[in-house]
Amino acid sequence: MRLIALLILVMPGILAVYGIKLIRDALFGEFHPVYLHIGLQGLVGLVFVVGGIAFIGGFILHRDRKRNLTKGRFKNED
């Protein structure tokens, strides 16, 4: 079970790192022909970074809510 959780966290982390690489390459003019335009490459990199960090943050918040470690700050109002 822990191995599956580790894989779930590693894949978005790798995606976020690749997004940082795409943004860096777009800023320094290193164009990858897959993305058709350097601006599109930077935008895709930004989406990868934000998506990866949001997924990891949501995973950690869900785990902390389940274990009652949030001390009432992030309670669900269901």
Architecture overview:
- This protein is mostly helical.
- It has a domain at 13-20 and 34-68.
- The protein has helices at 2-28, 38-66.
- Helix 1 packs antiparallel against helix 2 (38-66).
- It is elongated.
Short summary of the structure?
The chain has 78 residues and is mainly alpha-helical. Helix content is 72%, strand content 0%.
Question: Which structural class do you get from the secondary structure elements?
Answer: mainly alpha
Let me know the largest β-sheet: none
Radius of gyration: 17 Å
The residue fraction in helices comes out at: over 70%
Instruction: Please report the distance between the alpha carbons of the first and last residues.
Output: 28 Å
Shape: elongated
Q: Tell how many strands the DSSP assignment holds.
A: 0
Element-by-element helix/strand order = HH
Mean pLDDT metric: 90
Helical element count?
A: 2
Beta-strand content bin:
under 5%
What are the segments in which pLDDT stays under 50 over at least 5 consecutive residues? none
Which properties best describe this structure?
single chain, 78 residues, 2 helices, membrane
Topology:
Elements: H1 2-28, H2 38-66
